[in-house]
């Protein structure tokens, strides 16, 4: 028996371009959707938040769209919501994990999942010192990443030194940079596993032949002229991966998401020539490509909306956290 749908779903967002597919799916499920743009504002801790279920759709790349206050304000908003006992899908715990690739590496390791060697460094001297300790090629990326921010490949520390001295060099929010072992894949693609509500949704391959900006959303990947050849966007070729829910790595991801309170995620790994799989990214603000979805018969955002219906049942609302 389907439970009554709450009158309001509150969506925290900063990128309006990503909202239509989610809003459409939620409204199809019968929800009333209230959009809450996050960048500037005020919060009164004594005032209770509006009723309803809240969905966190704030991305670590928000600062690249001029929303430089979004992440810090979201931290306070999520704590406020959870302090007042509101149900938040991908709440503060999941959000903090998404905002740091360093923390993601720690969590993945804690769950016994193989990761590339990873070092966090702040400051030129410490970046070069960390680079000198790598035996072989390595990449850099922003600790608060998204959109492939700061990703560069280096074969020796001297190359990094020149990169750091380049005009316009950007170390990312807080100047926190990640140096990570480069995993050479025999074929130029990574695999992304989509999880919704503790359930495996599907896995897809994303080509890295054109770079590492691999956002799968339709906005990030406008349909090109060669659609008939299967090309889905300017940044890569998306196809379904043969991985299933029974795969041991997928099972590890599901356990991780359950224990770390991550309800919606796209988790990425790369496989080397020996078949070793290295997991390196957990995306909480995951998007779905409708063209691929139509091809494989999975509507990602509709699955999210159905999960929200289940999560909105009164028996699943959390107790107020201690402040």
Short description:
This protein is an alpha+beta fold and 323 residues long.
List the helices and strands and how they pair.
Elements: E1 9-13, H1 19-28, E2 33-37, E3 53-56, H2 70-83, E4 88-89, H3 92-98, H4 101-110, E5 118-122, H5 124-132, E6 138-142, E7 152-154, H6 157-164, E8 176-181, E9 189-196, E10 199-207, E11 238-240, H7 248-259, E12 264-271, E13 277-283, H8 290-296, H9 300-311
Helix pairs in contact: 1-9, 5-6
Q: Number of helix segments? A: 9
Domain tally = 3
Write the CATH architecture name of the largest domain: 2-Layer Sandwich
Strand content: 15-25%
- The first-level CATH class of the largest domain is given as Alpha Beta
Main beta sheet, described?
5 strands, antiparallel
What's the count of strands?
13
Q: Rough shape?
A: globular
What is the rounded distance between the termini?
A: 36 Å
Low-confidence stretches: 225-236, 319-323
The pLDDT mean sits at 89
Query: Which radius of gyration do the C-alpha atoms yield?
Result: 20 Å
């Amino acid at each position: 028996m389907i439970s009554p749908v709450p009158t309001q779903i509150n969506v925290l967002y900063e990128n309006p371009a990503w909202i239509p597919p989610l809003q459409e799916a939620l409204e199809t499920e019968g929800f009333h959707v209230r959009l809450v743009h996050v960048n500037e504002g005020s919060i009164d801790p004594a005032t209770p938040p509006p009723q309803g279920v809240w969905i966190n759709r704030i991305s670590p790349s928000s600062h690249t769209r001029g929303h430089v206050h979004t992440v810090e304000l979201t931290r306070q908003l999520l704590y406020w919501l959870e302090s007042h006992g509101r149900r938040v899908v991908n709440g503060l715990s999941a959000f903090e994990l998404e905002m740091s690739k360093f923390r993601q590496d720690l969590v993945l390791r804690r769950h016994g999942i193989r990761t590339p060697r990873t070092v966090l460094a702040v400051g030129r001297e410490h970046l070069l010192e960390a680079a000198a300790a790598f035996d072989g090629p390595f990449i850099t990326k922003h600790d608060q990443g998204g959109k492939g921010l700061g990703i560069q490949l280096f074969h020796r520390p001297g190359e990094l030194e020149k990169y750091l001295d380049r005009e316009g060099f950007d170390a990312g929010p807080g100047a926190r940079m990640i140096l990570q072992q480069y995993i050479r894949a025999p074929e130029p693609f990574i695999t992304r596993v989509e999880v919704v509500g503790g359930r495996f949704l599907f896995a897809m391959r994303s080509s890295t032949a054109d770079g590492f900006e691999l956002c799968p959303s339709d906005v990030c990947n406008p349909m090109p002229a060669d659609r008939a050849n299967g090309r889905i966007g300017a940044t890569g070729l998306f196809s379904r991966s043969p991985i299933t829910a029974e795969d041991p790595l997928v099972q590890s991801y599901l356990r991780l998401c359950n224990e770390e309170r991550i309800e919606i995620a796209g988790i990425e790994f790369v496989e080397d020539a020996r078949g070793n799989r290295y997991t390196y990214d957990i995306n909480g603000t995951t998007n779905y490509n409708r063209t691929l979805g139509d091809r494989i018969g999975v509507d990602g955002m509709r699955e999210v909306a159905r999960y929200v219906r289940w999560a909105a049942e009164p028996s699943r609302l959390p107790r107020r956290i201690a402040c």
